[in-house]
Amino acid sequence: MGESGKAEAAKWRRLIWVVTVPGVVLFSLPWIPSKYKFMLAIPLYAMFVFVFYKYLCVKKEESAGGNNSGKQTFQEGGKVGKKIRVKAPAKRTRKDR
């Protein structure tokens, strides 16, 4: 994945902080009524879950790196086929020689 994967992971890492800091501020301010805190917490929590999920997906793709885990084959008509799996050659035994 290389340099672009690291840049994308850094982007999502920053977005995690952008979502987390307002959440902490929201619950620490005493003059916001608890009714509004609850209503604001629902979309804030949804944003945090989405951003953290995307960050984990990017990190997983980055760690997969050089193998063909993310490549897909295309069949006729533009339909996506199964993922390509590369098998290592079988080891030869003494009997095969």
Structure overview:
The chain is mainly alpha-helical and 97 residues long. It has one domain (2-69). It has 2 helices and 2 strands; from the N terminus they run ααββ. It has helices at 2-28, 34-64, and strands spanning 72-74, 80-83. The protein has a two-stranded antiparallel ribbon. Strand 1 (72-74) and strand 2 (80-83) form a beta hairpin. Helix 1 runs antiparallel to helix 2.
Entry summary:
With 97 residues, this protein is mainly alpha-helical. It has one domain. It is built from two helices and two strands.
Spatial arrangement of strands, main beta sheet = 1-2
Q: Looking at the structure, what is the overall shape?
A: elongated
Quick check: average pLDDT?
76
Radius of gyration: 23 Å
H/E topology pattern: HHEE
Question: Which spans of ≥5 residues are poorly predicted at pLDDT below 50?
Answer: none
Task: Profile the largest sheet.
Answer: 2 strands, antiparallel
Give a topology summary:
Blueprint: H1 2-28, H2 34-64, E1 72-74, E2 80-83
Antiparallel strand pairs: 1-2
Helix pairs in contact: 1-2
Observed structural traits:
2 helices; single chain; two-stranded antiparallel ribbon; 97 residues; mainly alpha; 60% helix
